[in-house]
Design brief:
Chain A has three domains: 58 residues, Winged helix-like DNA-binding domain superfamily/Winged helix DNA-binding domain (Arc Repressor Mutant, subunit A); 133 residues, Nucleotidyltransferase, domain 5 (2-Layer Sandwich); 156 residues, Nucleotidyltransferase, domain 5 (2-Layer Sandwich), CATH 3.30.420.40. Helix content of chain A is 40%, strand content 21%. Chain A contains eleven helices and 16 strands. In chain A, a hairpin with a 4-residue loop joins strand 9 and strand 10. The radius of gyration of chain A is 22 Å and the shape is globular. Chains A, B: Pfam families: MarR_2, ROK. Chains A, B: This is Putative NBD/HSP70 family sugar kinase. Chains A, B: Keywords: Kinase, Transferase. Chains A, B: InterPro entries: ATPase_NBD (IPR043129), HTH_MarR-typ (IPR000835), ROK (IPR000600), WH-like_DNA-bd_sf (IPR036388), WH_DNA-bd_sf (IPR036390).
């Protein structure tokens, strides 16, 4: 019902009854409950139609905040949104994720979370939940099984965070960064609501978030979307994972930069963009090669999943003017469906905070699915 | 409710109410409707428990038949099952699918369907529906967009069949063969009910059927599962599709046989099995190579989708003793998740009729989802 009001507000109780098939008494009682919890409120508006004028309902949610965070190799990000998705806060902090211990990371994330929560509390908002994006394999129980670029193995981040925050009274979830980024696209992006989406993180690591038939598909153990380690070329270069010819090794951002210091990647990518804009032939060649290899990976995902769109995130976004044409040509050539199955390849518009924003989206999804805050 | 009775029979109306959350009056009225339609019947059994003894319900469905068919390059298959999945009939006919025109195929499928329907009618069964498996790209509207091995383009098989059968009064669906085969595995196979399954057809063409979170995932246009044309090796051999290094070109059954006549494939595969059993070194080498390349394809699907199991069908089944170990070793080596994400690789036990059986499963799914026969 909350989802219906979000999508159709302002709407009347009769509209809800008509659409959900619930009878009017049930709708009235459920609406009263949502109003009690301040998730929905009545507006002064009435519908201009024949018959008794109806009181219209809209999302309230001003008393609530949903928080998303991201831990990555060189930064922490925090985003807070209200129930309608309005951005309340968006912070980014440098953080040495590649060298910090898990305990140091927990302390840093807990400190950042505390500051966000304090801000929300000061603004008289109740925190609905926190979801943290991590670049790694996350088990279905939320444990970080392995996050290679952070050097983590078997880290119970959600549990450790709850302890560090002394059982804060709101749920804490942990999820793969690509999975959360695709949720952000699905809820807040220009392709929002598109049922079949693949999102590719464009970092030194490459991961995919997969939405099919409107839902995140995590696979049996929660390990889906490991597109960075599909083999693009058995004769290709060695990957950091020890395997050969992985997508990450031929089309990850690491191919385009010389530094191994994550904190330096952003400025090196800025430099690549500058050279490409200046028409430097070697740079343009390299971008076209990386684009083609990226296209090979996209073609594999497209042949297997037939998505409506593939969205490129992270550092792929500033490089999209050069990567995208080569990637699209290659992907179309290797796709068995005519006209690439109608799939489009686009650059994300959600910025570097996509995964954190997806964390906030994930919390809102939980509320929409019935995990309501207490009245 | 039908699904609940199938999974939990014998069960009482109170069991249904408790599990579905519907109130007892609603359950009674719905059960009365299902009894009217002869989908459910009461048994003499009563539950041995404190309180008033309850009348137990079981699936009836003896008055119904669900029919699945498969059109392939060298045969037509027909399967009929009752509502509980009991096999009523299983026929296989030689058919020159690779050379027949679509019109000839429609006539042959219609003739076979008519014979199956007549048999069911004679047995006093009402036909719930027919679903036809085709090895090709099927649009979401059921049109066969392209079936390369049949030489079909834009064939409205469902419409043409309905015309040939003179509007038979039951629905006719058309679906990709791998999609139907994975539905058969999910409903009738030893891994039935496993939420995340990938099925690979082992024919001259290789296709995948993908079930994630318990449902077939068809993609945006219905073209998912085209694993046969993912590029395994950019330096690999030319594929019949014109591309290079496709999975089908390195690990399709065509690699193991010399004939181009589909009708000869089965006997040639028998010969390969015979040589492998005799320990012929060249044959064993070739099977190991094909197995490894198949493992590369499986690794890609596993990294991207994290299924609980990958099931090998078609001609991969008789060859499984030699293909499977090499495929499993390679897939495990190329999988980023530890211990291959808990995924198992197994040979199908449903035989060559898997896709047709999946057609029957698809019709039963429609009934379970509420497309009930008239009382």
């Amino acid at each position: 019902m909350l989802r219906f009001v979000r999508d159709n507000a302002p709407c009347s109780r009769a509209d809800i009854a008509a659409s959900t098939g619930l009878n009017k008494a049930t709708v009235s009682s459920l609406v009263a409950d949502l109003i009690d919890r301040r998730l929905v409120r009545e507006t002064g508006l009435t519908e201009n139609r024949v018959g008794r004028p109806a009181t219209m309902l809209v999302l309230d949610g001003s008393p609530y905040a949903s928080i998303g965070l991201e831990v990555n190799v060189d930064y922490l990000t925090a985003v807070a949104v209200d129930l309608s998705g309005e951005r309340l806060l968006s912070w980014r902090r440098a953080f040495p994720g590649a060298t910090a211990t898990p305990a140091q990371a927990v302390a840093a994330v807990a400190a950042l979370t505390r500051r966000v929560v304090n801000r929300m509390t000061k603004d008289q908002r109740q925190v609905l939940g926190v979801a943290v994006a991590v670049p790694g394999l996350i088990g279905t129980d939320g444990t970080v099984r392995v996050a290679p670029n952070l050097g983590w193995h078997e880290v119970d981040l959600a549990g450790d965070l709850a302890k560090a925050l002394r059982d804060p009274g709101f749920p804490i979830q942990v999820e793969n960064d690509a999975n959360l980024a695709v949720l952000a696209e699905h809820r807040f992006g220009p392709l929002g609501g598109t049922p079949n989406l693949v999102y590719l993180t464009g970092e030194v690591g490459v991961g995919a978030g997969v939405i099919l038939d409107g839902r995140l598909r995590r696979g049996g153990q929660g390990f889906s979307g490991e597109i960075g380690h599909i083999q693009i070329d058995p004769q290709g270069p060695r990957c950091r994972c020890g395997r050969t010819g992985c997508l990450e090794a031929v089309a990850g951002i690491g191919v385009l930069v010389s530094t191994t210091d994550p904190a330096e990647v952003e400025s090196e990518i800025d430099e690549v963009v500058r050279r490409a804009k200046a028409g430097d032939a070697a740079t343009l060649d390299q971008l076209a090669t990386v684009g083609r290899d990226l296209g090979r990976g996209i073609a594999i995902a497209a042949n297997l999943l037939d998505p409506d769109a593939v969205i490129l995130g992270g550092y792929y976004v500033p490089l999209a003017p050069w990567l995208l044409p080569a990637a699209a040509d290659q992907a179309r050539a290797l796709s068995i469906a005519a006209d690439f199955g109608g799939c489009e390849i686009v650059a994300s518009t959600l910025g570097y905070g996509a995964a954190a924003l997806g964390g906030a989206a994930r919390v809102l999804d939980s509320v929409d699915s019935g995990r309501l805050p207490s009245p």
